Amino acid sequence: MITSSSNPRVKQIVQWQNKAKERRSAGIFLAEGFKLFGEAPEEWIREVYISDGSWDKVSGIPGMREKLVRTGCETVSPELFPKMSDTQSPQGILCVLRRPQYSMEEMLSVPKPLFLVLENLQDPGNLGTIVRTGEGAGVTGIIMGAGTADIYNPKTIRATMGSVFRVPFVYTEDLCRAVAQLRENGVRVYAAHLQGERYYDSFSFREGTAFLIGNEGAGLSGELASQADSYLKIPMEGCVESLNAAVTASVLMYEVHRQRHCIC
User: Fold this and answer.
1) Which of 81, 130, 142, 230 could be cross-linked to 51 through a Cys-Cys bond (beta carbons 3.0 to 4.6 Å apart)?
2) Which of 193, 195, 197 is closest to 211 using CA atoms?
3) CB 208 within 8 A of CB 188
4) DSSP category for residue 55
5) pLDDT of residue 242
6) Which pLDDT tens digit goes with each residue over 158-215?
7) Phi-psi map region of 238: left, alpha, beta (phi>0 left; psi -120 to 50 alpha)
8) Are 210 and 116 in contact (CB under 8 A)?
9) What is the pTM of this model?
């Protein structure tokens, strides 16, 4: 059992929790909680740490003990585990995973793809919610500019509720070039924009589709917005000017789902 905060593994976990650069350099990310560990692909898992006080929980979750046997794990004292955790109320299990690798070509190979293109989103919770909702709505890929929050931020990982294991994504230094690549492959690109003249549900999204989603406060840059094939708008009542970025993305994604799955 690991009991000392001077243990090299403990020091490394704490560093990874706090420094995105160190996680990126090591090619890893961290996931906490029994749900995330249970859904994590075993081939991604490099290390697992469990609080000595959490073994009773393991017996109550089907398949959990067997998975821990296959992946292996280190037991940590209940007093030390909170120092390794990023949460105020740790669940008692933490795993280190390798980062997956996706490509634009791979994401474009899906018939009638549905993309989200995210520019400068800053809130990790917003990003995690978008990834989770994206899985539910059938998104086939998420493309993020370099200025968007780190998808491997522990808060983002928690907000995805496991969807980060299943939704392909890439970061790019040139979002405009990425959008051009989408259009070259027959994907029609839309932007929710104040200059939009038609409501979002008046468009057909039954073929390859991508939505541009901008910064929570500033919205889309003029350069990226100009790459859209069409501007659309979402109805607003009262004095509301715009919706939260994650809510906007959700509304648009589920309209695609409705259209593509409507049997009427």
Assistant:
1) 81
2) 193
3) yes
4) H
5) 75
6) 999 999 999 999 999 999 999 999 999 999 999 988 788 899 999 999 999 999 999 8
7) left
8) yes
9) 0.93
Cα–Cα nearest to 117, from 32, 33, 178: 178
Between CA 226 and CA 224, with CA 207 as vertex, the angle to 5 degrees is 15
pLDDT at 69 over 80: yes
- The span from the CA of 142 to the CA of 116, in Å, is 5
Task: Tell me phi and psi for residue 96, to 5 degrees.
Answer: -105, 125
214 vs 120: CA distance, rounded Å: 6
Amino acid present at 86: D
**Residue 192 CA, distance from chain mean position:** 21
Contact 78, 85 (CB under 8 A): no
> Residue with structure tokens 């994907």?
187
Strand partners, 141: 115
Strand order of the sheet with strand 141-145? 169-172, 141-145, 114-118, 209-213, 188-192, 230-232
**Between vectors from CA 75 to CA 73 and to CA 78, what angle results, nearest 5°?**
145
Check if the beta carbon of residue 65 is closer than 8 Å to that of residue 92: no
Question: Which one, of 70, 90, 71, 72, lies nearest residue 80 by Cα?
Answer: 90
Closest-CA residue to 139 (of 199, 230, 233, 208): 208
- Three-class SS of residue 143? strand
- Three-state secondary structure call for residue 91: coil
In angstroms, the CA 79 to CA 193 distance is 51
Q: What SS3 state is found at 32?
A: strand
CA 65 and chain centroid, separation: 27
Can you tell me the distance from the alpha carbon of 14 to that of 1, in angstroms, rounded to the nearest whole number?
18
